[in-house]
Amino acid sequence: MSLAMAMAEVSPYSYTRFQNLPSNLSSNPSTAHFFQKRRSSFQHPHRPPSICCSVAPSQVESPVAPVLPTDAASNRECYGVFCTTYDLKADDKTRSWKSLIRVAVSGAAGMISNHLLFKLASGEVFGSDQPIVLNLLGSERSYQALEGVAMELEDSLYPLLREVSIGINPYDIFQDAEWALLIGAKPRGPGMERAGLLDINGQIFAEQGKALNAVASRDVKVIVVGNPCNTNALICLKNAPNIPAKNFHALTRLDENRAKCQLALKAGVFYDKVSNVTIWGNHSTTQVPDFLNAKINGIPVKEVITDRKWLEQEFTERVQKRGGVLIKKWGRSSAASTAVSIVDAIRSLVTPTANGDWFSSGVYTNGNPYGIAEDIVFSMPCRSNGDGDYELVKEVVFDDFLRERIEKTEAELIAEKRCVAHLTGEGNAYCDLPEDTMLPGEQ
Ligand SMILES: NC(=O)C1=CN([C@@H]2O[C@H](COP(=O)(O)OP(=O)(O)OC[C@H]3O[C@@H](n4cnc5c(N)ncnc54)[C@H](OP(=O)(O)O)[C@@H]3O)[C@@H](O)[C@H]2O)C=CC1
Ligand SMILES: O=C([O-])CC(=O)C(=O)O
């Protein structure tokens, strides 16, 4: 499509993208005026002005080659073909589409994102009638890789993918985001204390919380994946006081999926027969996969798998340490299955939960019915009516084993919270983490 066609009035069905263009185009005064008007919508008072782009309505006939941003550090740039402006009113197929949804993804050049972004763009997450905008956050270190990712998205020709922007400033990338999938985080290196990891990654999530607070949709839903994800989510929400704390999630869906798989394997059933699985607590080796309330074919697991010792020991430990075993085999942490579990986590919030079932998510404790400490991010059983919100499930039972395990993971999260007090605005940090505290991938 020629860009001359593209300068239709902006309507709910037309989309504008910006990119740097050759100087002969941007020097045209009418062009400069046009883009001055448009690009103002991307700007934020904390940032220097955007360096983007210019196209004159009647002067551009052929596609324009992208030019590298000269100041990538402070701008969100639309990418390549996604900078083209056109009018969707002309397109019959799109008449029944919903209005655009804007999804921001951090760590967008990383392994998990490399699987996730293509699922988002394909429609399998939000639906085949949901056009999508992807705002991808990287860093100076990953900028080229981010461009590579955007190129692959271009070449995939996804009909639903209407805009892609890349950048390294969260204030640009999170602008108006309705979903923020926070994946980027520093992996724990050899010899690094967990307290050190909490501090380094905590700084990232404190900054990103502030950025979400400043520029994201007031109803943004945030899923924190980067580890240690529960405490990172806590830091993030504490730095975003204008966004409801209930909108923040730490990803424990991968753990739930792992638990379902192990129960199915033991019972000799297909894994879709396993339901009502809760992961309680931290995404770490203290997490508690709950076999007491879980069901297989609608029957309590304990009646199907009568080997209590297996459930308490082997099953529990297998789920807790699955990530580490996989790293030993694969040489890196779960990426594809993590991306699948992020998809599951989103779909659980945007589609009604099946009758009687529930899903696990790390959510902010604020009046929970289980007696778990308040003011931490703790994985619990949730149910949604599909509007993006959730309620905690009340009809769960506890026994001594489950209570004792829950207390252990709760103590770990309270200790993590003390370690990051300087990042949550709660005074001086004091770090006395239990020695066996580990991410699933660390053993
Ligand atoms: N909750 C869960 O169930 C799971 C969580 N995880 C966690 O997800 C996160 C991402 O995993 P994955 O995509 O495989 O990792 P990758 O290493 O492939 O990508 C991580 C990205 O994080 C970014 N990053 C941000 N800050 C730093 C930093 N200081 N040093 C290095 N990289 C940084 C990097 O991007 P850039 O340079 O653009 O910032 C990098 O591309 C990890 O924290 C991992 O532990 C993994 C599996 C399961
Ligand atoms: O420890 C890691 O980075 C990987 C991880 O969270 C997991 O596999 O569950």
From TrEMBL:
Boundaries of every Lactate/malate dehydrogenase C-terminal domain copy: 252-422
Gene Ontology terms for molecular function: L-malate dehydrogenase (NADP+) activity
Main location: plastid
Catalytic activities: (S)-malate + NADP(+) = oxaloacetate + NADPH + H(+)
CDD domains on file: MDH_chloroplast-like
EC number of this enzyme: 1.1.1.82
Lactate/malate dehydrogenase N-terminal domain segment(s): 102-249
Keywords linked to the UniProt accession: Chloroplast, Disulfide bond, NADP, Oxidoreductase, Plastid, Transit peptide
Location of the protein in the cell: Plastid, Chloroplast
SUPFAM superfamilies attached to this UniProt entry: LDH C-terminal domain-like, NAD(P)-binding Rossmann-fold domains
Record InterPro entries: Lactate/malate_DH_C, Lactate/malate_DH_N, Lactate_DH/Glyco_Ohase_4_C, Malate_DH_AS, Malate_DH_NADP-dep_pln, Malate_DH_type2, NAD(P)-bd_dom_sf
Gene Ontology cellular-component terms listed: chloroplast
PANTHER family reported for this sequence: MALATE DEHYDROGENASE
Assembly description: Homodimer.
Family the UniProt entry places it in: Belongs to the LDH/MDH superfamily. MDH type 2 family.
Name of this protein: malate dehydrogenase (NADP(+))
Originating species: Vanilla planifolia (Vanilla)
